Structures are given as structure tokens and as C-alpha cells.
Predict the 3D structure of the following.
Amino acid sequence: MLIALLADIHGNREALTACLADAQRAGADRYVFLGDLVGYGADPVWVVDRVAEMVEAGAVAVLGNHDAAVLSPSETMNDAANRAIAWTRTRLKDAHRSFLAQLPLTAEEGDQLYVHASASAPDTWIYVLGPREAFQSFRATRQRLTFCGHTHFPALFNESALTLPQHHVPADGKPIPLLGQRRWLAVLGAVGQPRDNNPAACYGLFDDARNRLTYVRVPYDAELAARKIRKAGLPDFLASRLTMGI
Amino acid sequence: MAKAQLTVGMTIDGFRLDERIHRGGMADIWRVSRNDIDFPTVMKVPLLDFEGDISLIVGFEVEQMIMAELKGPHVPRWVANGDFAVQPHIVMEHITGPTLLKSLGQILPIDAIVSIGAEVAAALSDLHQQDVLHLDLKPANIIFRPSGAAALIDFGLSRHKHLPDLLEEQFHRPVGTTEYMAPEQLFRVRSDKRSDIYALGAILYQFATGRLPFGVPARMRKVRRRIWRDPIPPRALRPDIPPGLQEIILKCLEPLPDARYAHADDLMFDLRHPDLVVLTERAERIQQSDFRTTLARRLRAAMTMREIVASATRSPPRAPIILVAVSLRPGLDEVRHALLDASASVLANMPGARLACVSVMPTSLIAIDENVDAAGDNIHVQRLVELRKWARPLQLPRGKITYHLLESRNVAGAILDFARSNKVNHIIIGASTTGGASAKVSARITAEAPCTVTVVRAANETDRPDEVQLTAPGGNQILSP
């Protein structure tokens, strides 16, 4: 089975459309959404509708911190994020809110754990940025493979018996064998707001039969997504960062 | 991780164990078969146990990861990996030829050393092209196929640029075979393809002289001597070694990666044309550096180590090779002039490039003369002189230009062969002025070349474009190695 893994869409319709089309061309037969469907971007309604439709058809989705923030005003975030959340709230209808409200924090399937942030405390949204956070996450799950998002930086960690997990920065389109005797934690990059100096949308393709994970970069119309953000009156830097990938 | 005893007739993951053909210190090799596989296969089974060195386990994981990614004639074809939870193994194509280990202890003829070196350099080049560094190159890890191509085996210490390096994090001491290990590997640098070139230099030294350039050091302190102590020049041990071969070997064994060949293709080129090697002081050496020089190097060894590590982390790109095909037939002065202009402009756009001036002589030209040898030689020399005269206006320094006379009735075929076997990046040829046979030559070269081709027309043919740029399939790959 070829599983498409999509994290941090953040209301970016253009990026999601491009990634879904790419995954379909690659022959993906299962879709997993790793949280943060909304926030920052100008198309939260379209994105939630599309994902809800796919979940209806069998896709998996877990809750992200921005999705949670839309539901409860108590979440603390930076100012731009808060403004985007407040704006997103005015757009979403009850149906969207109830879809987000029923999303689980984690989902398990075979060897895999799906979670938005670290498995160590899924509802406190810890960023898995380095070996120490990865180590904590590995300790919290018995699953062999953890797939998460949240950091917007693609990364792959493997558990080691002797040292802290090793941090590998994956290259675009190069399949990585996730050796069966090891445990792995894959942080997928962001579909809708990449921050690693590469503006192309990032998602993952996991072939569970051959045990190979590929990080895929998909160029998309970031200019259009940025224009929509400006038009919605959201903070300008949320628009410009899309075209720069920062 | 103790596993059940393996015996003949057992089946593992669908593979029947037919015969144990090798019992090594770290792994057994079994000849295996499976109905749906129509080529001979072997299964490598690691001897893993918790008492043993964990590096063996990680090394086997690395090998499983990397072998599955490799392709082409210079590695065994990978078939399957066995799960560690059941029975770890790797099934791969059985290459029946001998490893170079069989030839160890012998002093080989010069021709054999040069041709082994060129084949192994070609294999390294292919491996490096696939973003993999071997990092444990030694005679036991090189097998020759019946076709004569070298295949590399044992990737337990290798590094794939785009896969997690399981060894780097796990170990805080250098891994590898010290006899062939490059100085930067002593400092755990695992990212420089010139480390493999160093190892190949050590192998060539061994086959040329019957001894290892730095002996078999027992302790790490002894291993470090190679940073400041130069090996005994091969010609001091064996006077019939040509200066060109000594130059090649000692260049591979330079402590500073920047002073070695930048790319396996460059090494391969020199080994295929040993008489064209640009000789330096290295070629003339007849003894090791004297006591004072060695002492001075010893005293600044710490600084040299830092230079080595710094040099190893900035691998330069390979110097591209431009082939210009020059027809020396009379009456083609204008085409030759246009070729000269085109060469100058391509060189200007490819900094560091080397120009290979190639002329093809039909073999019949030589054969018609009564005194074949003497006359043949004369024509040969005469053509070389003409070729050099043609290139003189370019004013290229030695080392940036080489001259090659190819003897063949098949002009296009000879040029294409040369381009392929020397990994040429760009071919410049003259367009036909007369049509007929020579038009077929340029057409065939543009169609089949492994790189970009520039077809040049003489300036006075006004109704046609001066220059046509064509890119052959696969050209991109070679232009951006």
C-alpha cells in the first residue's frame, strides 16, 4: 500500500491541490492528514471540506494545534497566528467545527503511529526538532514508525541502542528504506507553509510493502496563495513567507 | 540474535541453501536458488551475536540499505534483504570471477596494473555517480566479471549521500581497513569521494611493488604516520615502473584530498592514457623525503591534519573533458579554423575543462605502405605534429590539453568509443562540407553521443547556421556529475 502523508496544510488550497495530484499520479491508495488543516492560509473552508470528504472515503486525519485553537480560544500562539485563527473562526461553519472537534490526537494503524507533534504528550504540541525531542517521542510509543508534522522542517530520526536518535535531513524524491529492525520517527515537512528555505510543498509517500519512505517536494502556485492571504487582510508576512519558503 | 544452524537444503524466505561457498570472519556466503530467479545468486548471512562487535550489526544494516539502492554492472545485482527478527541476510547476484585478493602477493606486469586500475576507477566513478562512497576499498572487495568489468562488494562501511548514515552517529573511532585508509578517514570524515581514490592508490602501489605503501600498522599512532611520511617511491622498489604510473599512484596517495585526483573519472583517464600523464616532481622521485623534510612535516602534522579535514569537506567538481574531433585531411582549413573558434568558446564557458584533440586515421592509410611499421610510425608522428600545430593558437598549458590519434576505419564509432570510455562532457565536430560519408559521421555522433555535441560549420557557408547545438540523451547526467 502506498500511503500519502500530509502535514500542516494550513488552509493552503493551492499547495494541497498540488500535493494530492502528485500523490494520485504516484499511485497513492491511502491518505493520512497529520494535523493543522487550518490557520495562516486563506482557504480554510475549502481545505476542511476536501479533507472531510476524503476522511468520509476512508482517509485518516488527526488534530493539530491550529485546529484545536480554532475550537477553543485558550491556545497560546504568536500574534500573527492568533490573528489568522481569529479570522479562520469567522469563516468556518458549525459543520467544519464539528468535523475538527471529532479529530483524534493520535491514530494507529499496523506499525504506524500518526500524531501531529511529539508522541510524548500529543496535546502539548512539543516540536520534534532534534534528537532529544525525538528520543522523548520514541519512549512514549511502542509503534515502530511514528509519522508527525508540526515543525514544518522535514526530518527523519532513527532510534539507536547506544546514542540519541540520529537526525537525517531527507533529500527530495530519494526513497529511504526504513529498516525493519529499527524504529523510525518521520517529521513530514509542511504542505502549506514550508520553512526550510524551499517554497515547494512537502509531503511523504510511504510504501508499507517495501518499507520505503520518500519525501516529495511539489512546486505549486505560491504567488496565488500569497495574494489570497493579502486579500483576506491577514498579516502580510504570512503571504511573503510562502513565496520564500521561510 | 543466535539463529538456528543453517544447513544445506534449508529454505529461507523462499531461497534454498545449496552450498556454503565461503566461511568468513564476519559472514558466511551461501549459494542459493529460487525458482523465479534465472541468474546465479548468493546469500550473505552475517555472524551476529550480542557478544560480538555491534559495528558488525550496524554495518550489515548499512549494507542492506545501500545495496538495495545500487544499480549497474559495477555492483552485484541486489535481490532481497532478510528481516533481522527472523534471519538477517542479503541475497544478491553471484559474480563468479575472482576477487583481487587472489592476485595479492604477486607483483603484476605494468599493463595489468594499469588496466585493473582503470577498471576499478570506472567502477568507483559509477558508484560515486550513484551518490555512494565505498570507504573500505581493498583487494578483497573487488571482483572482476567475465566481461572484464570490475564490481565492488561489501558495503558495510559505505556512505549513501541521501540516506541516514547509521555508522556516523554510532561510532567515535574510525572504521575501515587501516592499510588502505585515507588520512581524513582517521578523523571520521565520511563524505569525500577522494577517500576511495586514496584507497585505490594504495592498491595500485601494492600490485606494483608487492608491498603496502604504509605497511600494516598495528596501532593508530602508526596509522597516522601517513600524514607526514611519504611512501617509498614505487620506482625505487621496481625500476621498470614508468614515471607516468608512479605519478598516478603517488598523486592518489597525497595526504591532502585537494592534491589527489578530484574525480575517479580523472584517474581513469590517466590510467587509460598513461603516456599522456603530466609528470611532476612525483614522477621523478627515487627515494623518500630526507630526514629534515620529514621532521619538518612531522612538526607541522597537527596543522596538516586540520588542512586535511578542511580539504575533505569541500569536494571540487570534476574538470570536464571537451573532445574536439579534428580531420587532418587537406582542403579543410576553414572547418579546422571554425573548430578552433568553437573550442575556444566552449573552453571559455567551462572553467577548468581539458581539451582532448582527437583525430581518426583510417587503418588502411597505414596498411597500403610497404614498410608498414616504419611508414605507419611516420604518419603517426606527422599527424601528431599537425594536431599540435592546429591547437597551438589556443595556448593551453600542459595538462589542459591532450592529443589522441585513433586508428579505425569507423570514424564515428572510434570517436563515440573514446567519448564513452573517457566520460567526455562535450564533443565538438566539424559538419560535412561535401555530404556523403562525412555527413554520416557527424549525424551518427550527434545521434549517439553520451553528451552534448556541437557541430561546427566553416564560416563561408553563408546559407547555413554557423553552429548547431544538440544534446544527446543522457547528456545532462554527464554535464552535472
About this structure: Helices of chain A lie at 13-26, 44-56, 65-71, 79-91, 94-101, 131-139, 222-231, 236-244. The interface with chain B takes residues 156, 158, 160-163, 166, 168, 170-171, 174-177, 179-182 of chain A (CB under 8 Å). The radius of gyration of chain A is 17 Å.
